[in-house]
Amino acid sequence: MLGLEHDFRIVDTHASLDPDEASVAAHGRDITPERLEREMHQAGIVRAVASPGRRAPGRSYLRANNAVARLAVDRPFVAFARLNGPRDPGRGPVSAVRNLRAERDDHHARPDDVEQYSYDDRFHGFTLVPPHDGLPNADVLERLEAADLPVIVHGGRAFPPDAVERELLGYDFPVVLASFGGYPLDTALMNRTLDLLGDHDRLYVDTSAVRYREILERGVLEHPDRVVFGSGAPHVHPNVGVMEVLTLDVSEDLMRRVFAKNPVRLVPALAEGADV
């Protein structure tokens, strides 16, 4: 795929790295850090947040997080630590019963893990994927609040925007809801997320896998300071995500906010010349 030509400085808040063969097998996408860096360069993306892809159930993210941090050295990646937990993110009676008996296992994130990541200058935020990894316990979320670093949350039908509001938005840390909270391609959930932006000052959305021009434009026009670019790489070539924003019917100033100004304000390590 040919490289894109544009005049924007672009940083990406949504990419993943599979640091070893076990992760690749579980994640289903064999792509090296070098290839991901090359694809980012083709799209004109100068720096990207990266966190591990999914691990098999019962596996800790500790080694994967550390591997991503190592891979980020001397590359244009900013490492985020991925956290898991024992709580079921659903709201039905089955989830309620499970959560009554949910006990943290050895592979689940603990408050001390959050504290360690927070003070380790290799990590600049956190990633939660409740539909696959479960929800951390309250003591872990309280430690995230104390750290006050951005938390990227993957939601969707298994963890919809109202669940995000109920479980996470009561804590005082920045939340970036990936894919406008509507993955995969659920316009009702995406619109519900945009409604929530008016009620929660520290809620943001990223553009990965949104695909609907009218929803992207609504987000950018109604909440110009709360939309950040996310490609969803390596599942989607970064060129695709960039083009979806470049073809919106919005001003260049708004595009610059989405591509760089908003993400850099949220994640200072994405700034030009930042020491990562």
UniProtKB/TrEMBL annotation:
| Alphabetized GO MF terms | hydrolase activity
* Hydrolase found in the keyword field: yes
* Keywords attached to this entry: Hydrolase
Recorded superkingdom: Archaea
SUPFAM superfamilies given in the database record: Metallo-dependent hydrolases (SSF51556)
Query: What InterPro entries does this protein's entry cite?
Result: Amidohydro-rel (IPR006680), Metal_Hydrolase (IPR032466)
Q: Where is the Amidohydrolase-related domain?
A: 11-267
One Pfam family assigned to this protein is Amidohydro_2
Question: What is the name of this protein?
Answer: Amidohydrolase
Species in which this protein is naturally found: Halorubrum halodurans
